[in-house]
Amino acid sequence: VQKLLGSLNWIRPYLGLTNSQLQPLLDLLKHSNDPTEPRILNKEALHVIHMVEQCIYKKFVSRIDLSQLVQFFVLIDKTVPFGALVQWNSEWDDPLHIL
């Protein structure tokens, strides 16, 4: 679970997920200091894994369009800031490109 959450932390902003949404997975780490201890995935944790899977399935990384401005967004989820490099163009099929 610890390795999974470490990997998810890198892609979480790209997927548009917050720490709050991942909380059921984070809760699995609360009761032990041993990262190798087996964990049992409850219904809520499985729901989060399926949600992450769907987000990954639907997303892709955009290439930079040099004719558009690049913006850096800083977002805060329960006092935890994270950032994203983006481009916006209302004429694109998907107006928000996450770089």
From TrEMBL:
InterPro entries assigned to the protein according to its UniProt record, in alphabetical order: DNA/RNA_pol_sf, Rev_trsase/Diguanyl_cyclase, RVT_thumb
Reverse transcriptase thumb domain mapped to chain residues: 2-47
Keywords in alphabetical order: Endonuclease, Hydrolase, Nuclease, Nucleotidyltransferase, RNA-directed DNA polymerase, Transferase
Pfam families assigned: RVT_thumb
Top-level taxon: Eukaryota
UniProt-recorded Gene Ontology molecular function terms: endonuclease activity; hydrolase activity; RNA stem-loop binding; RNA-directed DNA polymerase activity
Name this protein carries in UniProt: POK7 protein
Gene: Ervk7_5
